[in-house]
Every structure is written in structure tokens, then in C-alpha cells.
Amino acid sequence: MDTCAREQALRREAIRRHLAGERRGTICRDLERSPRWFNKWWAVYQRDPRTDFADQSRRPRTSPRQLSAEVERTIVTVRKALATARTSPTRYGLIGSGAIQGQLIELKVQPVPGQRTIQRVLQQHGLTHPLGAGQATAYYPWPVAWDVNVIQATDIITRHVYGGEAIENFHTLDHYSQAVWLTQHPDQSSATAREHLLKTWAKLGLPLVHQFDNEGAFCGGHTHPRILGQVVRLCLFCGVEPWFIPVYDAKRNYQVETFHSLWVKGFWSRQRFRDLAHVQREAPTFWHWYHYHYRPPSLEGRTPAQMRHGVAVRRLTPDLQHLIPAGRLPVTSGRVHLLRRVNDAGQVQLLNETWPIGDKWIGHYIRTTINTREQKITFWHQPEADARWRLIQTRKFPIEETVHALLPEFRYTRARCLGHWPD
Question: Which of 33, 320, 339, 386 is the most buried (most CB within 10 A)?
């Protein structure tokens, strides 16, 4: 028996004995091989139980120039699925080239591209984290609330009750007063997000700006280019300016994330909930405690209810709700803001499209504003907190449907703060 065949036989024997229940140490001692050797071939077997245990060539399996369009599309699709974490198998874990390669193996893609090739594809599609993206080096233009309902922020936190049922908890927080509104649902669809916002605005009032992360329920999904989803359309219809934080940057939503932590500690961890109805029955009790008894550190000893006492808020009344069509909403005149960090290719990803900004802005945060009435998109930069916003570029943003004027009933009587959100 030649050396290669003997090695294959030893590897096969090691795995057979381990599957029969023998310990790794015993197998390695008998076969005079190291635990590292065993771990390597056990991993090979786990990836492909039909392996012949032959040595694998160290040459790259594919050439970057030979990657098919189908495999490239699969790489992009897998990355977006891992990043958005819409299913239980993708809720936790990594999203880099190694994780994607593992998914391609499970999908039986042939030939499996190397990690460097996968990284190159991600970079071409603007799906990489630029070098230093996790470092707080570039100034981030935080939106500042100077009054009640200037900025509200909504986020979703998923929890499971005993027995496995998933509960999607929608939380909206007013940045200035720290007041919240909570609803609980069996899913996190755009229709559910719309339902939550209508209830929130009826209770807390309509904001000038509503901040979201990039969940598909809020942005409209991650497939169609230039999509204006139902939540964006609802905001525009009601005269609210949606504001999307950067992708993969949850700390930019820290106000509502901080509330999530308090909610888990003070509500979810204090009760063994049976089902959705049980959670919905108990949530008002926690909400009342939070509003009338809890004093958030940022409010200097006051409760959210005290912060809002005597403040006239413009609520979404039943009469106003009656003006909102029940089906698909039209596009209404207004502004949509998206904060993005320019990647190492000098680009930003907006509404499932790649927009070149320029190498000069790599690593900087850029605010993009879509003006639906004028059908244009503007790119802005603020180098530091006290500096004025600088207009970098203006481009056309054609909308292939009729843009409706904002109804008079939804027009604000107070002016926008152009210092924070210039046109």
C-alpha cells in the first residue's frame, strides 16, 4: 500500500472508530497521530460525510476570473440573508467570507470559491465593512432632539415564550422625553410595523423625524432597487421624515437599545410568559410603571410623564387616521434621510443600490436626503458637531409613479430645524 492510500485508510479508520464511540485520545494513541490531525479530518467528515479522505490540493479551487454570474449572485444573496437575520438559523453567528463559504458548502455550490474570492465579490457589491469601520474615528452627526416628538425611534426585539413561540416586541421611544409605546406581535412584517406606528402616533403624537434601523420591515426589503417601502410611505403620507441609521451600526440607535435592556430586566425577565396574549395583558402594567415611576438617568430625576406634562402634542386622531388609505400607500412629497459610512471603495449603499461618493470620503459618515417632490437626492457631510452641513453632491432621483402632495391636515405648523436637517 502506498503512502497516500495508507494515510486515507488511517483517516477512515479514525473516523469509523470515533463514530463507534471511542474517545479521541485512544484513537490518536493507537494510530500514532496528534489530536490536531484527528480534528482536521473529523471536520472534513462533518462537512462531507461522503469524503474519500484524500489530500486536498492547496491550489485555489477557482480563479477569480472564472467565477460564474450564478455563484456571484448566490454569494450576494447569502451575505444579505446572514446580515438581515430574518430567520432563526441566521439570527446569530458571523456574516463574513468564512461563514458565507460554509453556507455555499451546505448549498452544494460547485466549485466552492475561496474566501478571498468571496471577499472580492462582497467588496464589488459594497457589502464589506471598510477598514476601521468599527473604530470611532470619523465624526458621527447625531440627530439632536430639542423638544418633545422632534425625534422618535422604533426598534424590534424578539423574545421567545416558554414552548418556543416567538414574540416580536416593537418599541418606540421619544428621544427628548424618553416616553415609549410598546406593542407585541407574532411577526415583524411591514404591515405589523405600520400597525405599530399608527398606534404609537395616536398615543405619543406625530414626530418630525422617525428613526429606524435597516430591518426589512422598516426599509421595504433588501432586493428591489430604489424601493420606498410601506413604512417609508406611511411616514411621508403623515408628514414625518424617516431617518435610517447606518447598516451594521446598532449603537447609533442607543436610546431605544438602552430601553430594550431596561425592558428585559424589568419586564421580560420578571415573568414566565405563556403566549402572546399573556405578554399583551402584562405590558400595560410595565408601561405605567415606566412612565410614572421610573426616572431615566438622562432626565435628571424626572419621569417621562413629567417631561410631557402640559406639552401640546399633535396626535394621530381617528379623523386623521381615516384619511390614510388602507391599501398600498402612494408616494407623498417629503424627505427621507439615510446615514451611511462611505466604504473603502468610496461608495455607499442606499435602497439596494450602490452610489459612488469618492475616495476623499472613505470612512466618513454621509447623510443622504431624498426629496420626493423634487425627485432629487443630496449628499451631505458634517465634519464636527459645531460645523455647518456641507453639500457634497446633488443628483436626480426619478420616481416612476405619481408623487402626491402632502394633505393639508398633515402639515406641521412648526418649522423644521434646518440647522440639523438642511434641504
Answer: 339
Q: Where are the beta strands (DSSP E) in 67-194?
A: 151-160, 166-174, 180-185
Q: Name the DSSP letter for residue 176.
A: T
Reported as a single tens digit per residue, the pLDDT across 173-232 is 999 999 999 999 999 999 999 999 999 999 999 999 999 999 888 988 888 888 899 999
- 353-356/241-244 β-pairing: unpaired
Q: What is the pTM of this model?
A: 0.68
Q: Model confidence at 413, in pLDDT bands (50, 70, 90)?
A: low
Q: DSSP 3-state assignment of 17?
A: helix
- Indicate the angle between helix axes 276-292 and 254-266, nearest 10 degrees: 110
Q: Which residue has the cell 426585539?
A: 157
Tell me which residue of 401, 343, 405 sits closest to 373, measured CA to CA. 405
Collect all residues with Cβ–Cβ distance below 8 Å to 366 and sequence separation of at least 6: 339, 340, 341, 342, 348, 357, 379, 380, 381, 392
d(CA 273, CA 281): 10
**In this structure, what C-alpha cell is assigned to residue 170?**
416593537
pLDDT computed for residue 277 by the predictor? 95
Q: pLDDT digits over 88-97, tens only?
A: 565 556 677 8
| Cβ contacts of 272-277, under 8 Å, gap ≥ 24 | 272/162, 273/161, 273/162, 273/167, 274/161, 274/162, 274/163, 275/161, 275/163, 275/165, 276/161, 276/165, 276/167, 276/184, 276/185, 276/186
Neighbouring C-beta atoms of residue 119, cutoff 10 Å: 19
Judged by phi (left if over 0) then psi (alpha if -120 to 50, else beta), residue 207 lies in beta
- Using a CB cutoff of 8 Å and minimum separation of 24, what contacts does 321-327 make? 321/198, 321/202, 323/407, 323/409, 323/410, 324/198, 324/234, 324/237, 324/238
Q: Mean pLDDT, to the nearest integer, of 402-409?
A: 95
List, in sequence order, every residue forming a beta bridge with 166; answer none if it has no partner.
160
- CATH superfamily for domain 134-423: Ribonuclease H-like superfamily/Ribonuclease H (3.30.420.10)
